[in-house]
Amino acid sequence: xxxxxxxxLAVYEQGPEAVVTLVTTLYDIxxxxxxxxxxxxxxxxxxxxxxxxxxxxxxxxxxxxxxxxSTDVFINEKPKTKSRRKKSGKKPGGQKDHPxxxxxxxxxxxxxxxxxxxxxxxxxxxxxxIEVKDHEKRQVFDIPPIKLQVTEHRAEIKSCxxxxxxxxxxxxxxxxxxxxxxxxxxxxAVYLHDYQLLPYDRSCELLADVCxxxxxxxxxxxxxxxxxxxxxxFEQQIxxxxxxxxxxxxxxxxxxxxxxxxxLHVASTNKMTCYYPHQKxxxxxxxxxxxxxxFNGTVVHDFWKSYYKYDCDHSICNAHLLRELTSxxxxxxxxxxxxxxxLLIDVKKSVDQIREMSGCMxxxxxxxxxxxxxxxxxxxxxxxxxxxxxxKNDILRFMHDLKVPFENNLAERDVRMMKVQQKISGTFRSMxxxxxxxxxxxxxxxxxxxxxxxxxxxxxxxxxxxxxxxxV
Length: 472
Hints:
Blueprint (H helix, E strand, L loop, with lengths): L1 H12 L2 H44 L97 E3 L6 E3 L14 H12 L5 H12 L5 H14 L1 H13 L2 E11 L2 E9 L4 E6 L4 H7 L8 E4 L11 E4 L1 H15 L2 H22 L6 H21 L8 H9 L8 H17 L5 H19 L4 H9 L10
Parallel strand pairs: 3-6, 6-7
Antiparallel strand pairs: 1-2, 3-4, 4-5
Helix pairs in contact: 3-5, 3-14, 5-13, 8-9, 9-10
Pfam family, one: DDE_Tnp_IS66
Protein name: Transposase
Organism: Methanococcoides burtonii (strain DSM 6242 / NBRC 107633 / OCM 468 / ACE-M)
């Protein structure tokens, strides 16, 4: 301290100019230090935001975000599930008077085996000539031995006795080769690959082990390609039906094609499914798919921004929204998110009850829910002034139009098995392969939604007579 005082006095004794120089130098040093402090403060703020985001990522799981359950990581122990459902008070298991699925006897069995009584179990007298009074029946349900059935087609050849011309009968259009597989086997191969998601080699292995036929992957691929070509009109008809539908569900998911990440898009209802692969995720793909550009109803989606480029009504998936609200409640401890969570669930319960009675919600009840919604949004914006509220109409549309579902589960279920396909097979080798798979899968999904026997439907498609649903 004394040294600094002596230095300052020494400068003072040198005169005013020396003091001015010293003070100016000090100002410059302070200014430089202030700049460094401001830069450090900005960096600290940046790092704090980064740490906050990373902590939020660590806290996110399948319950409070859109992450799939397979990505959940539990360091110490699995967290307890917090279900939104309230306890019903019922005991676990089947409820009283609930119809079971017990295997029931048939009236006319395919085969009857008689177990005879030869002698009395008491006195051992012969009972061979005694009349049978009754039978106790037991039935065994099993699969018959599976083997290929070979049908030989013979075209008659006759020579005309008058002119000597040699005449041969014409084979059916379905019989084109000296030896070939039939439509049933081709249908089964397509079903195994495109619905049960078995790779070509494993499908061929299963057919060899179970049916005893040495079918090659190339033969299976040809059957699949034939089915694809015969379904061209079906695909266009399904797109037309979806365009005319009052409500459709849409979603998209990543798909690896040619070793690159591309996208699979889906548009569906409870009766129809249309898949479409594309290099992009946004509106370019949606335009190429050809449904949303011509659609005038309500599209249900997970609020991906590309959907809002289309001039139709929109409905946000509230299941996604509930998970996001749970994340805000748990990670940011904000009360408005809990209130909004409760509101959406209460509205859903009211809508579900009204659907059961085939009615519509009363205007005063709608106003009550909307007022409640507005109050919660007001509180939320006060806590988060930097954010903007999403459209109330898109969130509560299911309350005004009972044809609109609460969530986008339908489309999510339709794309879920496609993720399984990617885990099994990894990638499509070409875009054409992805297009073939998507169209055939669209057909099988539509068939099953309409409860049509799937094997018959595939066989009819290969034969050029695909199933076409009807709009009710």
